[in-house]
Write a structure and sequence with these properties.
The complex is a heterodimer of chains A (222) and B (279). Chain A is 36% helix and 14% strand. With 222 residues, chain A is of the alpha/beta class. In chain A, helix 1 crosses helix 4 and helix 7 crosses helix 9. In chain B, helix 1 crosses helix 7 and helix 3 packs across helix 4. Chain B is elongated and about 60 Å long. The chains are: A alpha/beta (222), B alpha/beta (279).
Amino acid sequence: MSTALKLRDLLRSGIHRIGQIEIQQNLCGYPYVLCHSADAELSKEPAFGGLEIHEGPADARDLSTYASDGTYRFTKGQTNLERGWVVVLDNEEGLRLALDQFYPACVGLFLAQQGGTLEIETLRDKLNRQTGMYRFARSISDTGAQKLVQQVCGPAHQCAKKILWKLDADTPLDDSEASRFNGIPSDLPQSEAIPLLCREACNHFVAECRKAAKAEFEQKNA
Amino acid sequence: MSRHLGGMSIAPKPNSALLIVGHGSTENPDSSTPYFDHADEIRRRHLFSEVHCCFWKEEPSLREAFYLIDAKEVYVVPDFISEGYFTQDVIPRELQLNGPTTEVRGKAFHYCLPVGVHHSMTDLILKRAKEVAPGVDPAATTLIITGHGTGLNQNSTKAIRDQVDRIIAAGAGYAAVMDAYMEEAPFIAEWDQLATTPHVVVVPFFISDGLHSYQDIPVMLGIDSEVGAAASQREVFRQNPHQLRGKTLYYSSAIGTERLLADVILDQIADFDLAHRGI
């Protein structure tokens, strides 16, 4: 079964949220309508309550590129998605494509987790494959990396992803709000939302590791 | 069947996915725009069951691409301007590819050459050069194709030199066609000395309008006095022509921002099928 059809089945089972996006079905004649979860009630008003209407999945990338204050959303798990729009979609394929632009690969990652085929990558594996200027990131200490998780990840730092990775095969993350977060940036139960999964440290985290590793190096040699 | 600027045609592949691979950036929002544009353009043609993008420095990552694809057969096309470290080391390593076709996780991955080395790029460069300088006599014009240039990787300069040779061979009518680079001779900063004609057209041989084509090179050309904001916040190319250093300069946006680069992606797939699958 395709990812799009599996997604349809998830929605039939009661799921209606991913990240900050509310997924509505059969609204104003459209099989699927997406909007910011904070606009969900408004979108049920006639003419979507005056929200800006985007037809088809193609605009999803533009809608997710900048936050309302104009800053670049450099990771898509950020909890600063802009409000004020609906994306209307004709079918499951369009829905899947739109969601993959708002939250890249997150539907597929969740399905793989459910099916037991999700492969998780440790931080050390990720850092050891960095090249060029990011090569230095690999020298970060375990202590420094643990600290960075608490300074960079989790909803307190605008990231709504559930961290699945460890530092290395034998070193789990220290307990913290970031390491405990379940990938659902709302009070919804897990039966109603697809969690955003972080199977590998993102490139923003890698860049922060590089900065921290340099600071550690300079401190050691001061 | 689709036809385009002179490349090959490609038959629909309703059971295959296309995976476009780009570099991406966590800092520049314009960096990945061309890849998504190319994907949109190809989706519109309904040639593949799925079209996805993945990146080295952006989401979805190359390794997350495995979770995007349903099809059992996948064409991987690096949307890069040349062969080099990324196309020869990083992409194969991340996707676990070990040859033209590799079986990974129950799927057949066909690994094509990067778009920039395909001969049909020549047509795109000429198209872009004409668009940026409409009505300008080629016989009074020098066409400069510019890239990064670095001692570390000769492939990127070779890709540009190959294009220069092809444009000259095509007899496009330009008084001169030459290559120039940011970090190696001939330097793009010396464009006015390299060109002897009154008109100069500069086409950056990059996929996206990122730091180099819209921020660094304009300073080297003399269009800007200092490095400016990201491309989407500026309108450098709309200010053509520039009267600078006694010449008329026309500066184009990066060649990869050309929507028809989608055709070059398809050309690389057609070439792959011909070379490795006999179809």
